[in-house]
Design a protein that fits this description.
This protein has helices at 52-65, 73-78, 80-84, 90-100, 104-120, 132-143, 155-168, 173-176, 197-214, 230-240, 250-267, 285-306, 316-339, 395-402, 419-430, and strands at 179-186, 189-196, 275-277, 282-284, 358-364, 369-374, 387-394, 414-417. With 435 residues, it is of the alpha+beta class. The N and C termini lie far apart (129 Å). The model is unreliable at 1-36 and 42-49 (pLDDT under 50).
Length: 435
């Protein structure tokens, strides 16, 4: 249904459908005239329609073209903590470091934060330093001296047993059964014996028992202990065990060491001269404690090498005393080898206390020093005027030689003088070792 037709006024204008008027040209002109030319250059594209997609594309292009503003001072200051911890991105790190060259307060704050991070994360080994225990004890005793101090000649043994005990503390069952090869020198050749970490501790327990019996303490092998030297006692311990030695051996070894130190601390003066029988030779108790300290360190070295763990040598002062003991034993070892026909004959009879032929032994490195070794008799007096040869060795290499870990031929010694005397002394040093 439609309403009445709308009356269109006759005003001379043409109107399309819908009533919009179009202004015509002059009457009589053609309706299909050419359109006006486009004033834009031919290369310029037509404007994109103002749609939502077009507006978004233009906005993104403008954002990409515009450079980002540099971070403000407040933002860069808030990044200093992350920068000190090396937790910034590469761009943030560059921005902070550029800012530090221009801002003195932030530079000072950055240095303080870096120092604080260094305190929180020290770049040090987790292993305890060898002298830490001695320093702690020295500091404690300086503030409150012990009523019963440990004798100075027993401190190397006390230290080395404590260091080995610290190494063993965290061993699991598998480490206690790790194979270890013990080495020593006998006559003209090096020998070795395969055991385990637990077997090594058992060996130390049995040989320390010689010192215990000299002090009137119980023998760890009991009344059935064999009469003999260190080899016989060790073989007896290994063979008498019903089951393979395990980590259970640590506690008796540790307790025996504490008892030895405690006993000599209460014994007073004069006990250091008490003889300790090693089966074939004897040492004063003071030297026996030093010898036990040396063997404890050497076997701790063997154990650490077997489990692939670093182990530091003794302190310079203790190492010097161990080397001094070996140097003092060399004339006797040389005389014993000469009686066995394993060393060259003496070049002359020397009265006790009279000067005789001498070899100068120079040990370099930590614990080093110089020693004059009498060549013709243990009772002869070394004399620099009668020096016929000189040997120079690194301290650790000399200890390896005395422990039987390297042969005399392999010792990288600086040698000068009588070749026979040099050979005899190097072989005598190796003969100090034993199982």
């Amino acid at each position: 249904m439609t309403g009445p037709a709308e009356e269109v006024p006759d005003d001379g204008y043409e109107r399309p459908v819908g009533g919009a008027a179009r202004i015509p040209g002059p009457r009589g002109a053609a309706d299909d005239l050419d359109p006006l030319p486009d004033p834009r250059p031919a290369s310029q594209p037509a404007a994109a329609p103002e749609t939502a997609a077009g507006i978004a594309a233009e906005t993104a292009a403008e954002s990409a073209a515009a450079p980002e503003p540099p971070p403000t001072h407040a933002v860069l200051k808030s990044l200093l903590g992350a920068w000190a911890l090396a937790a910034c991105s590469a761009a943030e790190t560059q921005a902070v470091e550029d800012h530090l060259t221009e801002c003195a307060p932030c530079a000072e704050e950055a240095l303080r934060l870096r120092d604080a991070v260094g305190l929180l994360h020290p770049e040090e080994s987790l292993d305890l330093k060898p002298l830490l225990r001695s320093r702690v004890l020295e500091d404690c005793l300086g503030k409150r001296p012990a009523r019963i101090p440990v004798p100075a000649w027993a401190t190397p043994y006390d230290t080395e047993t404590a260091r080995l005990d610290a190494l063993l503390r965290d061993f699991g069952d598998s480490e206690w059964h790790t194979p270890v090869r013990l080495k020593w020198f006998e006559e003209e050749r090096r020998l070795s014996r395969r055991t385990t970490v637990a077997g090594v501790i058992g060996h130390l327990l049995t040989v320390d028992g010689l010192v215990a019996t000299a002090l009137g303490l119980d023998d760890p092998l009991g009344p059935q202990a064999p009469q003999g030297g260190t080899t016989e006692r060790t073989e007896f311990f290994w063979d008498s065990a019903r089951h393979p030695t395990t980590r259970q051996v640590r506690e008796p070894w540790r307790e025996q060491g504490h008892t030895l130190v405690r006993t000599v601390s209460f014994a007073g003066h004069g006990v250091a001269e008490l003889a300790v029988d090693y089966g074939g030779f004897a040492l004063p108790l003071g030297d026996a404690f030093l010898e036990r300290a040396f063997e404890c360190w050497v076997h701790a070295w063997d154990i650490a090498d077997a489990v692939d763990y670093p182990y530091e040598p003794p302190s310079g002062a203790h190492l010097h005393r161990m080397i001094d003991l070996a140097a003092r034993l060399l004339p006797g070892a040389l005389a014993e080898r000469r009686r066995a026909g394993l060393a060259g004959p003496a070049h002359g009879l020397v009265a006790a206390g009279a000067p005789g032929r001498t070899l100068h032994l120079e040990i370099e490195g930590a614990g080093g020093g110089g020693w004059d070794i009498a060549l013709d008799s243990p009772a002869a007096k070394p004399s620099s005027e009668h020096t016929v040869a000189e040997i120079a060795l690194d301290g650790l290499e000399f200890c390896q030689l005395a422990a039987g870990h390297i042969s005399p031929e392999d010792a990288a010694a600086g040698q000068h003088g009588d070749r026979e005397a040099i050979r005899d002394v190097l072989f005598a040093a190796a003969s100090l070792s034993r199982l």
